[in-house]
Design brief:
Elements lengths: L2 E11 L4 H8 L5 E3 L15 E7 L6 H12 L3 H15 L5 E9 L32 H10 L2 E8 L2
Parallel strand pairs: 4-5
Antiparallel strand pairs: 1-3, 1-4, 2-3
Helix pairs in contact: 3-4
C-alpha cells in the first residue's frame, strides 16, 4: 500500500482575509487562500479566506505532522483561540479553526510500506504499514482546547 499524508492548522473566515489574520497574530502562514479567487460569484469559490500552517514532510507519521504544527503554534494558542472565537461570532458559527489531517491511500506518489528488518525484535509483516495508526497526545488536545479548533480527518482512496 502507498500512503500520502499531511496535516495543517487553519483559520478560515468569510469576512477576514488571511493577510489580516497574519497581521493580528504576527505569524506568517505557510499558505493563504483568498475567498472568491477562483470564482467571485455564486457559488463563491473558495468559499472562505484561509490562513494555514502546514506540514507536508514525507516519511512522517500523522503524530509527527501534528506535533510539528503544534510545536510551532503552541505558544500562540491562547491568542489564536481569541481570534478563532471572534471569527466564529463574526461569521455566524463554529468552525473557523481546524486541525486537518489528509491521508490518501494508494496514491502513486505515496510512501511504500517498509518491510525491512525486525522492529523492536518483532518480524515486520505485510499489512503493517509504518504510517498507519496515530494518536493525539495531551499537548495536542490542550492545543485544540486553547485554540477552539475542530479536528477533521479526511481519508481518500486514490483513483
Amino acid at each position: 500500500m502507498l500512503i500520502s499524508q499531511y496535516a495543517y492548522f487553519a483559520l478560515k473566515s468569510t469576512s477576514m482575509p488571511a493577510s489580516e489574520i497574519t497581521a493580528r497574530l504576527g505569524i506568517e502562514p505557510d499558505e493563504a487562500v483568498i475567498r472568491g479567487s477562483r470564482r467571485p460569484v455564486d457559488p463563491v469559490i473558495p468559499a472562505a479566506h484561509c490562513w494555514r500552517v502546514v506540514c507536508r514532510t514525507p516519511g512522517m507519521t500523522v503524530d509527527e505532522h501534528i506535533a510539528h504544527i503544534v510545536d510551532r503554534l503552541f505558544v500562540h494558542a491562547p491568542q489564536v483561540g481569541v481570534l478563532a472565537a471572534e471569527l466564529d461570532r463574526t461569521d455566524g458559527g463554529p468552525g473557523s479553526a481546524v486541525l486537518q489531517v489528509v491521508r490518501v491511500f494508494e496514491h502513486p506518489a505515496g510512501e511504500p510500506e517498509d518491510l525491512s528488518g525486525p522492529v523492536d525484535g518483532l518480524e515486520k509483516l505485510p499489512g503493517q504499514h509504518q504510517l498507519l495508526g496515530w494518536h493525539l497526545d495531551r499537548r495536542t488536545l490542550e492545543f485544540l482546547r486553547l485554540t477552539g479548533a475542530e479536528l477533521d480527518v479526511d481519508e481518500y482512496a486514490y483513483g
